[in-house]
Design a protein that fits this description.
Elements: H1 2-23, E1 30-33, E2 46-51, E3 57-66, E4 69-77, E5 90-95, E6 107-117, E7 128-137, E8 144-146, E9 151-154, E10 158-165, E11 169-176, E12 179-182, E13 193-199, E14 211-216, E15 221-225, E16 228-231, E17 237-241, H2 244-257, H3 266-288, E18 309-312, E19 316-322, E20 325-332, E21 335-338, E22 344-346, E23 351-358, E24 364-371, E25 374-381, E26 383-384, E27 391-392, E28 397-400, E29 412-418, E30 421-423, H4 425-429, H5 431-442, H6 450-456
Parallel strand pairs: 9-16, 17-19
Antiparallel strand pairs: 1-2, 2-5, 3-4, 3-6, 6-7, 8-10, 10-13, 11-12, 11-14, 14-15, 18-21, 19-20, 21-29, 22-28, 23-24, 23-27, 24-25, 25-29, 26-28, 29-30
Bound molecules: zinc ion.
The site of zinc ion has 5 residues, from loops.
């Protein structure tokens, strides 16, 4: 009898123990911001990870405290999945509340996350604080004001804006349609004065409305329309016939050099190169041109390859024919300049080599940084005579012309890029244009460094 009682007591103890083990909190709930938040803006999105362990979260609440007021950003409850609880051990919360609408006052705030779980609470009951962190709420966007008042730009061309920005600005530049051209700061002695070269790229139209934009650490964004007149530009239409000899000579080599699968159908192989490889090259150029010297490395107008005749010009609209059928359309984003075979390729201006290697359809390619986001590209070279990091002077030999990449004959493919976007080189070859649109604006305010040097003397 006693033994039976002892067994029953043991079973009851085991049941209570087992239930306790299953319902006890394996860890006190805690929460953390997924990424560091510098400051909260009007609608700064952020994520919070909440960890509770088993038996899982019952509810969470995210609030901002300002003074004695509390503002609810999010509250969620999680229904039980079994007698044990929700079994939701981890939860990521996405917050994107409009703090202006909630009327949270600007200034210091405290972000508070509380969480309740399905565990049996012995001493505390209900929700506990899982995160308590001070933040700053900033709802005021930075101030920006253009200092150059009129901007005249041609479709496919470039202009420069000089502007003043408030010190809370962390990024600024010019937005034109889907394109963004970042500003350069620190060029002028007055650190509040910034500049940006911007383009109206050749694939936009005259309705493009360049806007000066600035953001602060809280993500608040200010934009100001730029007074800008955009002149039309007609781009040439050209037809190129692709024949079997060209396909046989080019396609297998380009596939091999660029890690593409061998296509037994040469036309299909060609189209993959002309479309996909071309796009890949452009995104590579974006990476190559991601950073630029914060000052012009050039001095005067850009040099155009000596004694070379243009075969194609900027933004030619090309139609590709094979056996009389249209097989493709592409835009030619540079100048094709031809002279003698294996002619020395001349640097267009002083700069620094940022790329010297094979680059897809461009073949052996050199890219130079000239500062302020301006780069020049030299494609289809037979030999390359410079290395990444080399400083080069205007007209310095970079290599020899050739027909590597998707070139049908020996020539130089020359392009000017602004932050990786191809623009019309004609402007940069023109001393008058350069003076009116760039150099004169750079001279509007004293330069940083110049003043310091003066003080030292
Ligand atoms: Zn070309």
């Amino acid at each position: 009898m006693r033994a039976a009682l002892a067994v029953v007591a043991l079973i009851i103890l085991l049941l209570i123990g087992g239930a306790w083990w299953l319902k006890c909190e394996s860890q006190r709930p805690y929460a953390a911001l997924v990424a560091k938040v510098e400051a909260l803006g009007r609608k700064t999105p952020f994520d919070i990870d909440v960890h509770a362990g088993l038996p899982g979260l019952r509810s969470v609440s995210v609030r901002l405290l300002s003074g004695t007021s509390s503002y609810e950003l999010l509250t969620e409850s999680y229904p039980p999945q079994s007698w044990r609880g929700s079994l939701l051990a981890d939860k990521r919360l996405h917050i994107e509340s409009d703090l202006n609408e909630l009327r949270v006052p600007e200034g210091p705030v405290t972000l508070v996350v509380t969480a309740d779980t399905y565990a049996w609470h012995l001493w505390s009951s209900g929700a506990v604080a899982a995160l308590n962190t001070p933040l700053t709420l900033d709802l005021t966007p930075p101030l920006i004001a253009p200092l150059t008042t009129q901007h005249n730009i041609r479709l496919g061309g470039v202009d420069m804006v000089v502007f003043r920005q408030s010190p809370d600005t962390v990024s600024s530049g010019v937005e034109v349609g889907k394109y963004f051209f970042p500003a350069t700061t620190g060029y002028f002695a007055d650190s509040a004065v910034a500049l940006a070269l911007f383009a109206v790229p050749q694939d936009l139209d005259l309705g493009a409305e360049p806007r000066l934009v600035a953001r602060d650490a809280a993500g608040n964004r200010r934009e100001v329309a730029l007074a800008c007149s955009i002149a039309p530009q007609r781009f040439a239409e050209r037809t190129l016939s692709i024949d079997d000899a060209f396909l046989t000579r080019k396609v297998p080599d380009l596939e091999r050099l660029n890690g593409l699968p061998t296509n037994p159908n040469l036309v299909e192989g060609y189209l993959q190169i002309n479309r996909d490889l071309r796009l890949k090259d452009e995104s590579r150029l974006h990476e190559i041109t991601a950073t630029s010297a914060p000052e012009p490395l050039w001095n005067g107008a850009f040099h155009r390859q000596s004694n070379a005749a243009p075969l194609s010009s900027f933004a030619d609209r090309r139609t590709y024919l094979y056996r009389g059928d249209v097989i493709d359309h592409q835009t030619h984003l540079g100048y094709d300049l031809a002279s003698l075979k294996l002619a020395p390729v001349e640097a267009a201006q002083n700069g620094k080599v940022v790329f010297a290697d094979n680059l897809g359809i461009y073949g052996n390619t050199v890219v130079l940084d000239h500062g302020l986001g301006i780069f020049s590209l030299y494609g289809h070279l037979s030999t390359i005579a410079v290395h990444v990091g080399d400083p080069v002077g205007v007209k310095q030999t970079l290599g020899q012309t050739g027909e590597t990449g998707l070139a049908g004959g020996d020539h130089l493919h020359f392009s000017i890029m602004l932050h990786g976007i191809h623009v019309d080189p004609v402007e940069w070859w023109d001393a008058h244009w350069l003076r009116d649109h760039v150099t004169s604006k750079l001279a509007l305010f004293p330069r940083a460094g110049a003043q310091k040097a003066g003080q030292q003397r």
